[in-house]
Design brief:
Length: 545
C-alpha cells in the first residue's frame, strides 16, 4: 500500500508518501499516464503507533501543477492527488462552513445550506437545573437561544465553544489575509469577514450564559441526550447548568480576545465582550475553584475539569492585553500560576494553557515581557521533543502510542498549532522544520495514515462518510456535509460499534471505524474542526511569503 495526502499538496511543499513495502516507484501524471519522476524507497522506519515498519517516498522535487498518483514496482498504487497553489482553499472554506451547519435556534435556508437546509430548532425558553430537578411549576424561563450545537448531539457548552472560537480568532489575529474567504452564510456581504460573522453567532449565545454576578453557567443541554432525530424534532426541556470556575475563566479569556478582534468590525459588540470579560474577571478574583459534575441520571457532556489553573492563566493573559487599568493584578496572577507547573503547550478544552502561551508570545506590545523568556523556553522545549518523535515515526506524526486518546485528531491538530507557534518564535534556522511539521500533521489527517482514510468528509478518494452525528444520519441525504473532522483513532475504543469492529491488540493508530455508532472514534465536534482551520490558515500564510 502507498499512502498519500489524498487531496494533494502545495507546489512548494515537501511531499512524502508512505509505502508499507520496499519498492521502486514512479510518479505518474494522471492525465497523460506518463511517468514524471521515479526512484526507490529508503530504509525501513518503525512506527510504534501503527505497529509496523514503513518506507518513505520523497517526491518533493515535483512542483508542476497537475493530478498524479504513485505506482510501485509491485503494482501497488496510491490514490490520485493534486498539486496546486489553491489546493486547500475549498477545504478551509468547507471546514468553516460546518460551523454554520451547527447553528442552533434558527433555521438553515436553502440559499445558504443547500440540500442541508432544515427548520428552526430549540427556540423554547430554558430553565435552571434546580427548578428542573424540583419540578417547580412556575420556574422562571430564560431566552438562551443561539450558538452552535457542540458535536453529534444538540448540547451547547461554554468551555467547548470558547476553545473553538479561540482557535479561529487567534488564527485571524495572526494570519488575517488567509481568512477572508466567503462562506455563503446569512451575514455574508455585511463588510465583516464571514469567519468572524460565524464566530460572533456563538459568542452572542455565550454572552447569554453569564450569570448576574459575573460567573458563567457551565452548559445548556437537555437532561439526557436526544435519540437520533433531527434538531427541530427535539422538544426536550433545555436546562441551564450551574456556574463553574474553569468555565468562567474560559469565557473571560475568549471574550477578552473577541474584544480585540471585533473592535474594528463590530465596535459595540467589542465593548459588550470587554465588559463581560471584566465582570467575569472580577468574579474569578472573588471565587476559588468551583467544580462541575453531572447530577445523577444526566448523560449530556460533562466537560469536567479537576482544576482551573490553566483556564485562569489564559484569562489573565488575555485580560492583560485589554484591561491596562488592572495590569499589575494580571501580572501577579500569571507570575503565581507559572509556578504551578502548568504545561503552557496544550490547546484543547481540558488544558487551555497553550492559549495563554499563544497570547503572551504573540502580543505585539509585549505587555507580559517579563514572562516571555520562560514561556518561550517551555514552548520550544516541548516542540523540539515532539518534533523528534515526528522524525522518528514512519507516518511523520508528533504522537506516541499513548497519545491516541478519545479525539486523537484533536491532539494531532493541536500539536500542529504548537509547531506553528514554535515557528513564529523560533530562530530562522529552525523555523522551516516546524512549518513542515504542521503540514505533516495535515497530511496525516488527509490520508497519509495506515488506514488509508481521509478523516475529513468530502476530501480525498477515501474520505470517511459516517460520522456519529444526529443530523447527518437523520437528514435523509447520503453524503455528509463536506468538511467535518472525525475524532479519529482511540487506543481503547469503548462503544459497541468500535469494539465489534476492532480486534483486541490493534495498534493505536488503527483503532478506528467509520461507523455512525462509533462515538468514541468517529464523532464530530466544533473544536475538532477549529484547530484545523488554524492549521490551514498557518500553512497558507507560510506559502504566501
Amino acid at each position: 500500500m502507498i499512502y498519500t495526502n489524498q487531496l494533494g499538496y502545495l507546489p512548494s511543499s515537501n511531499k512524502i508518501a508512505v509505502s508499507t513495502v520496499p519498492c521502486n516507484y514512479q510518479v505518474i501524471d494522471a492525465t497523460t499516464q506518463k511517468s514524471v519522476l521515479d526512484g526507490s524507497v529508503g530504509t525501513a522506519i518503525e512506527d510504534k503507533s501503527a505497529g509496523e515498519n514503513v518506507y518513505h517516498i520523497d517526491f518533493s522535487n515535483l512542483t508542476t501543477p497537475g493530478d498524479y498518483y504513485i505506482l510501485a514496482g509491485n503494482g501497488g498504487k496510491s490514490h490520485v492527488f493534486s498539486i496546486r497553489d489553491d489546493i486547500y482553499d475549498k477545504l478551509i472554506t468547507d471546514i468553516s462552513r460546518c460551523l454554520y451547519y451547527q447553528r442552533c435556534g434558527c433555521g438553515l435556508d436553502e440559499e445558504h445550506a443547500g440540500i442541508y437546509k432544515r427548520p428552526v430548532c430549540h427556540t423554547e425558553p430554558s430553565i435552571m437545573l434546580s427548578d428542573y430537578l424540583s419540578k417547580k411549576a412556575d420556574a422562571k424561563k430564560y431566552d438562551m437561544t443561539g450558538g452552535w450545537h457542540d458535536a453529534g448531539d444538540f448540547g451547547r457548552y461554554v468551555s467547548a465553544g470558547a476553545v473553538a472560537v479561540a482557535h479561529i480568532l487567534y488564527a485571524y489575529d495572526l494570519f488575517p489575509e488567509t481568512l477572508g474567504y466567503g462562506m455563503n452564510i446569512p451575514e455574508s456581504g455585511n463588510g465583516i469577514p464571514d469567519i468572524l460573522n460565524e464566530c460572533a453567532y456563538e459568542l452572542k449565545w455565550m454572552l447569554k450564559m453569564q450569570a448576574p454576578d459575573g460567573g458563567v453557567y457551565h452548559k445548556l443541554t437537555a437532561f439526557n441526550h436526544a435519540d437520533f432525530i433531527m434538531p427541530e424534532q427535539d422538544l426536550d426541556q433545555f436546562i441551564i447548568f450551574p456556574v463553574a470556575s474553569f468555565t468562567t475563566a474560559d469565557f473571560v479569556a475568549v471574550m477578552a480576545l473577541a474584544s480585540r478582534i471585533y473592535k474594528e468590525f463590530m465596535p459595540e459588540f467589542s465593548i459588550d465582550c470587554l465588559n463581560a470579560a471584566k465582570r467575569g474577571a472580577e468574579w474569578l478574583s472573588n471565587n476559588s475553584y468551583i467544580a462541575f459534575k453531572n447530577p445523577d441520571g444526566c448523560n449530556t457532556g460533562e466537560y469536567d475539569d479537576d482544576d482551573d489553573l490553566d483556564e485562569r492563566i489564559w484569562a489573565a493573559s488575555e485580560m492583560l492585553r485589554v484591561d491596562p487599568d488592572n495590569k499589575d493584578k494580571y501580572l501577579v496572577t500569571i507570575k503565581e500560576l507559572l509556578l504551578e507547573n502548568i504545561s503552557m503547550t496544550d490547546f484543547g478544552w481540558t488544558d487551555v494553557s497553550g492559549m495563554a502561551a499563544l497570547s503572551i508570545l504573540t502580543d505585539p506590545k509585549h505587555t507580559s515581557g517579563i514572562f516571555e523568556a520562560n514561556v518561550k523556553h517551555t514552548v520550544l522545549l516541548e516542540s523540539s521533543r515532539l518534533y523528534n518523535e515526528l522524525k522518528n515515526s514512519g507516518y511523520q506524526l508528533g504522537m506516541l502510542p499513548d497519545d491516541f486518546v478519545w479525539g486523537s485528531n484533536m491532539v494531532v491538530a493541536n500539536r500542529a498549532i504548537l509547531f506553528a507557534l514554535a515557528s513564529i518564535i523560533a530562530d530562522d534556522t529552525v523555523k522551516p522544520k516546524y512549518e513542515q511539521a504542521v503540514e505533516d500533521h495535515l497530511h496525516y489527517l488527509l490520508g497519509r495514515n495506515p488506514l488509508d482514510i481521509s478523516y475529513i468528509t468530502g476530501f480525498g478518494e477515501n474520505a470517511f462518510r459516517h460520522p456519529h452525528n444526529r443530523v447527518t444520519e437523520m437528514d435523509g441525504i447520503d453524503a455528509p456535509m463536506p468538511g467535518w473532522v472525525s475524532g479519529g483513532p482511540f487506543k481503547t475504543p469503548c462503544d459497541p460499534a468500535a469494539e465489534a469492529a476492532i480486534p483486541k491488540g490493534t495498534a493505536p493508530m488503527k483503532c478506528y471505524v467509520d461507523d455512525v455508532g462509533s462515538y468514541s472514534t468517529n464523532e464530530i465536534t466544533i473544536y475538532w474542526n477549529s484547530p484545523v482551520i488554524f492549521m490551514l490558515a498557518f500553512i497558507k500564510s507560510t506559502h504566501s511569503k
